[in-house]
Design a protein that fits this description.
Number of domains: 1
Strand order of the largest sheet: 4-3-2-1-5
Largest sheet: 5 strands, antiparallel
Radius of gyration: 14 Å
Order of helices and strands: EHHHEEEE
Structural class: alpha+beta
Number of strands: 5
Length: 80
């Protein structure tokens, strides 16, 4: 069997650092229900995953803002 390189991202779990993918967020139901332009800090990151339940993650930003639930489909691992 040949080893093939995987381009898939590792699964996000508690403690992972993430940011929001702006293109994926723009197509999501959450974007339709929110302000037209998301706050810059969610796009820059990092946010920390507190809990993963089903297809959603609860995130905490290192800012004085409330924790939020966002779909895993709009999140990407924070580079670094």
């Amino acid at each position: 069997m040949a080893d093939t390189p995987s381009t898939a991202q590792p699964p996000l779990k508690k403690g992972s650092l993430v940011r929001v993918n702006s293109e994926a967020y723009g197509r999501s139901a959450e974007a339709a229900a929110s302000a037209p332009q998301p706050p810059a800090y969610i796009l820059k990151g990092p946010g920390e995953v507190l809990v993963v339940k089903g297809d959603y993650a609860q995130l905490r930003w290192h800012r004085p803002v409330p924790d939020v639930w966002l779909p895993l489909a709009v999140l990407e691992a924070f580079p670094g």
